[in-house]
């Protein structure tokens, strides 16, 4: 998940928690306020009914009820029960109210009780040594309706608020990450072709400015290092090859001189062979060094992988005429565009030739199978042999320059071919996977992004 989406979601979650807590707070206190107001209204009616019941003069009793009806009105499902004080056990059982309800009312303070949506009030009334207990009940339909409306309003408001919070959170995170995205775009555009390019540093005095300056400092160090390596490779290319060519020529001249003892000719031959090995090693090392950084000299173009593999097979036929390399075209994609990669033909040919020649060499020229396929992003080339394999503990080191597996002692090599191949594939934004079992064989799987995937 992208960071800006994560920030928007976290912002929304925090806001949801705060708004939900506020909604619960509002709902709870509104409920308490409505309930307290209804109980108070019920207590007033209960008090009037109690005092009316204590009046001996019936005309006064009717006045109490008349005041209640005219000025207070009746509550929904309002009931009043006049009980002796204290009530007997039979009366308590008939009302089906808990005994604690009556016990709490002994202190002459109205006791409120809520049960199954019905509000109850127990009130003690006394006059001229006469005492009685009034048990009043009513249903607050208006209050329940108000609370239902409030609950719906809070829920709808909560979800509407979440939509706005998430939308504004996205806009907020998008605005905050604009400088970061600009840095990402600029960094993606910097490679070996334009190491001199730098990020634009805006004087914002924040972490983005510090990040930009850090990238630029790193690029300064990389450019100096690459320039030093470039100079070394250019100079070494000339300085190494010239004396080796001279030594090789002198050895050839020495072998062609008549009248030399066989021991001397053999010495010249050994010198010639070792110089040839040294030339090959030097050229391989220079190629390895150049693929690490030098992107200026190569020409990049559209390369069809199936045609490239055919040219690799032709080159292998010239070097190892009796090879058993077979190309499997059965899994080629229907879309030919998925076979075209953006790259350098010579380098890619060298990379795949190294793998194929190694497969032939380390399998003692047993069958080697090359399969070409593609997925949603990459063109895939699998090269499988039936050779000596690579020990599990050593697979992770095969791309280290000059490393050779412990079971390759009887085969000639310098440990440069696979590192060179890996560098070339990585230059083309690809990757190499290796699966191997000792004495069963090795499978190299290369992934190269096809050409128009860069623009998709």
From TrEMBL:
One of its GO terms (cellular component) is plasma membrane. Gene3D superfamilies: 1.10.287.130, 6.10.340.10, Histidine kinase-like ATPase, C-terminal domain. Pfam families: HAMP, HATPase_c, HisKA. The keyword Kinase applies. Signal peptide: none annotated. Its EC number is 2.7.13.3. It is found in: Cell membrane. Residues 235-452 form the Histidine kinase domain. The chain crosses the membrane at residues 7-30, 153-172. It is a multi-pass membrane protein. Residues 174-227 form the HAMP domain. It comes from the Bacteria. SUPFAM superfamilies: ATPase domain of HSP90 chaperone/DNA topoisomerase II/histidine kinase, HAMP domain-like, Homodimeric domain of signal transducing histidine kinase. It catalyses: ATP + protein L-histidine = ADP + protein N-phospho-L-histidine. Keywords: ATP-binding, Cell membrane, Kinase, Membrane, Nucleotide-binding, Phosphoprotein, Transferase, Transmembrane, Transmembrane helix, Two-component regulatory system. GO terms for molecular function: ATP binding; phosphorelay sensor kinase activity. Coiled coil: none annotated. PANTHER family: SENSOR HISTIDINE KINASE CPXA. This is histidine kinase.
């Amino acid at each position: 998940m992208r960071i800006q989406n994560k920030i928007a979601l976290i912002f929304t979650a925090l806001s949801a928690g705060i708004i939900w807590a506020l909604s619960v707070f509002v709902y709870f206190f509104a409920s308490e306020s409505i309930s307290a107001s209804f109980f108070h209204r019920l207590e007033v009616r209960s008090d009037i009914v109690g005092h009316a019941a204590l009046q001996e003069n019936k005309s006064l009793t009717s006045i109490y009820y008349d005041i209640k009806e005219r000025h207070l009105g009746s509550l929904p499902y309002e009931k009043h029960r006049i009980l002796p004080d204290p009530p007997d056990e039979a009366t308590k059982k008939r009302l089906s109210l808990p005994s604690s309800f009556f016990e709490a009312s002994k202190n002459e303070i109205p006791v409120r009780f809520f049960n199954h949506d019905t509000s109850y009030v127990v009130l003690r009334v006394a006059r001229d040594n006469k005492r009685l207990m009034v048990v009043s009940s009513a249903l607050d339909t208006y209050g329940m309706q108000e609370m239902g409306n409030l609950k719906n309003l809070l829920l709808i408001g909560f979800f509407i608020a979440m939509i706005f919070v998430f939308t504004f959170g996205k806009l907020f995170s998008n605005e905050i990450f604009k400088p970061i995205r600009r840095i990402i775009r600029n960094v993606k555009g910097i490679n070996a072709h334009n190491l001199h390019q730098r990020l634009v540093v805006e004087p914002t005095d924040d972490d983005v400015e510090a990040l930009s300056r850090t990238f630029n400092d790193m690029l300064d160090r990389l450019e100096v290092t690459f320039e030093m390596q470039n100079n070394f490779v250019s100079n070494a290319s000339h300085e190494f090859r010239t004396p080796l060519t001279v030594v090789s020529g002198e050895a050839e001249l020495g072998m062609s001189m008549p009248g030399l003892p066989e021991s001397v000719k053999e010495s010249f031959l050994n010198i010639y062979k070792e110089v040839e090995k040294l030339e090959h090693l030097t050229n391989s090392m220079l190629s390895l060094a150049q693929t690490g950084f030098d992107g200026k000299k190569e020409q990049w173009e559209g390369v069809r992988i199936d045609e490239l593999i055919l040219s690799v097979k032709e080159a292998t036929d010239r070097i190892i005429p009796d090879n058993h390399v077979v190309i499997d075209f059965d899994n080629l994609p229907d879309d030919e565009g998925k076979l075209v990669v953006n790259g350098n033909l010579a380098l890619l040919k060298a990379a795949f030739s190294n793998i194929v020649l190694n497969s032939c060499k380390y399998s003692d020229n047993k069958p080697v199978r090359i399969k070409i396929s593609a997925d949603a992003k990459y063109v895939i080339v699998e090269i499988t042999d039936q050779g000596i394999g690579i020990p599990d503990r050593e697979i992770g080191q095969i791309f280290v320059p000059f490393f050779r597996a412990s079971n390759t002692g009887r085969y000639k090599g310098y440990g440069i071919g696979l590192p060179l191949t890996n560098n070339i594939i990585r230059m083309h934004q690809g990757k190499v996977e290796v699966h191997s079992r000792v004495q069963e064989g090795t499978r190299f799987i290369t992934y190269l992004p096809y050409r128009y995937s860069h623009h998709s």
